Amino acid sequence: MNSARYLKIGQNLWVDQTFSNALLNGMNSFHASANAYVEYWNNSFGLQNPANAVKLSRKQIWQTFIQESIRTIAISSNILFEIDANAAIDHIKEQAFDLLGNNGLI
Question: For residue 18, what are the contacts with CB-CB under 8 A and spacing of at least 6?
Fold first, then answer.
């Protein structure tokens, strides 16, 4: 995950580091909820071109937030964190706590 150029956030949906980093910064800087970010994204970009609309769900935003948070922590801790692209988000979180956790805290 540390060096991944794209994160899988749905069955057939991948996002790049620019998107995932912007999402993480937006949610942290503005204290935005996943629901607020979904609304922002879909209103700003998801409805721009109806023929090529990419509407995101709260679940996809949350998946991106979790994965980018883990990647950021792993990189800053100099820990290689790798996981299967098809892993469930609960499995990703468990593995992150096992590898990056400090007595259950990240």
Answer: none
Whether 63 and 91 have beta carbons less than 8 Å apart is answered as no
Q: Which single residue is written with the structure tokens 């499995």?
A: 91
Looking at residue 50, the DSSP 8-state letter turns out to be G
Distance CA 50, CA 62 (A): 24
Give the whole-angstrom CA distance, residue 37 versus residue 105: 26
Measured CA to CA, the distance from residue 28 to residue 24 in angstroms comes to 6
pTM of the predicted structure, to 2 decimals: 0.84
Could you report the per-residue pLDDT of 41-63, keeping only the tens digit for each?
A: 999 888 777 777 788 999 999 99
Nearest to 27 by CA among 18, 15, 38: 38
Strands (DSSP E) contained in 13-55 are 14-16
